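Example record

The entry below shows one chain as it appears in the dataset: sequence first, then C-alpha cells.
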Amino acid sequence: MDGALQRSEQHLRVSFSLVQLPSNVVRWSGTFDGAFPQLFDLQSRVADGVAGALRVSIAPPERAKIEARPTASPSAWEEYTSALALLDRADRPGNVAQAIAHLEAALRSDARFAAAHAALGQACWARYRETGDAAWADRARDSVQEAIRIAPEAVEARLALAVIYAGRGKPQEALEEARKALALRPGSDELQRQLAYLLLDSGQADGALEAAHRAVSLRPGFGENHNAVGWVLFQTGRFGEAAASYRRQIELQPDNAQAFQMLGTSLMMQGDLAGAIAPYRDAIRLAPDARAWANLGYVYYSRGQGPDAVRAYGEAARLEPSSGTIRRSLGDARSKAGDSAGGRADWRAAIDLSRNALRVNPRDPRQLKNVAICLAKLGEKAEALRVAGEALEAGPASADTRYGVATVHALVGDTDRALVLLGQAFELGSSPSLAERDDELASVRALPGFGPLIEKAKSAHTKEVKRAS
C-alpha cells in the first residue's frame, strides 16, 4: 500500500494505491475527500475503500477498532501526532520540550485523551533523563497514572507505564506491562524495541537481541531500531557488531549525534582510541553532546593528555551538570593532572549527584556503582564496599556493574576479589582492552592471574566475532 495526504486549510484529500510486488503493477487506486473536523469519518471511509479493493470484509471486532475514536477533537489529534513525530527523534535538542508543548495543547482541547496523557508521561520521563530534575520524573508518573485511569487497557498507557516502572527500578513490573501491550499490538516496532531494552536490563540478552531484530524487521528504515540492536550487542561485549549497527543508524539518520557517539564508544571499547576521535567530534558538531565530550575526555585521559582531558570533561559536566559519572571522571582527570584537591571535590560532588538520582530509582546499579567508586577513591573503604554490594545485588547480570564493583575492590586493596569480579565482567561482555589501560585496576594488573584472564577474554571475543560473521 502506498499513499499521500494533502491538506488545504480545512480540506483533506487522501490518495491510496495497492501495488503488487515485485512487478510494481498498480492493482487499485482511490481518492477520498473530507473536512478536517470529520477526520475520523474520513478514516473509516478509507478503511472501507481499501477493504473493498482487497475484496475482504471487515469483521465486527476490527470494525469496532476502526470506529473507535481516540479523541473527540481533531485538533487534539493533530497536536498529539505532531508530538509523536518529535519524540521519534528525541535525540535532537529541543524536540522533547516541543513535544511536551504539543501534548499540553492536545490535553487543553481534550482532557480525557488517554493516549496524549501517556505520551506526555513518556516525554516528561525523557525530559528527566535529559535534565536529572526529579520533578520531571514525578510529572511523568502522574501523567501515566491519569492515562491508566482513563483507559486501563490502552496500549499507549501500558507502554508508558512500562517505561516508568523500568526507570524506577521495577524491571519485572515493566516487563509485565510491555508484554500486555504487545499482546494488544504485536506489530509495533516501538513495543519490540522497548521490550529489548527491558529484557537486556533483566539479564535476558538473547531475548533482548531477538526483540531488537524484530523491531528492525517491522520498521527497517527507522534508525532507532538499529540503535536498539547496537545497544544490546554493545552491552554484551560484541563491539564490532555494535559498530556496524550504529553505522547503519548513521546512514538512516546522519544528523543523529547519539549514533556517532555510540559508534565512537564501540570503537574505543575495541581499543581503537584513534578511530574513536572522529565519530566523537562528529557528535559534538551535530549537537552539544555531553557523552561525546566525556568519552573524548577518556581518550585524552588514556593518552596522557591531561589538560585536554580536563577541558573535555569540564565541557561534558557543563552540558550535563546532573551526571554523577561525568563529574567523577572530571575528578579523575583533575587528580591525574596534579589537582588532587579539585579531584576530591569533584568526587564528593559526584556522590551527591548520584544519590540525588537514587531518589528516583534507589536500585539503579549505575548510580550505586558510581557512589561506591567515589567513596573508594576518597578512602572510605567500609562504606564503599557496602554500597558496591548494593550495586551488585541490584544489577547482577550487568557487565558494567561487575566491572565497576571490581574497580572498587581494587581501589580498597582487595585485589583477589577484584580479579574474580573482573573475570565475571569479561564473561558478561566487558572490554578487556579497557581493563588493560584502566588506572583504577593498577593493583590488579600486578597479579599473576591478570594476563591470562585478559588473554582468555580476548580469545572468547575473537571466537564470538567469527561465529557471528
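Notes for this example: Residues 465-469 have pLDDT under 50 and may be disordered. The first strand starts at residue 2 and ends at 8.
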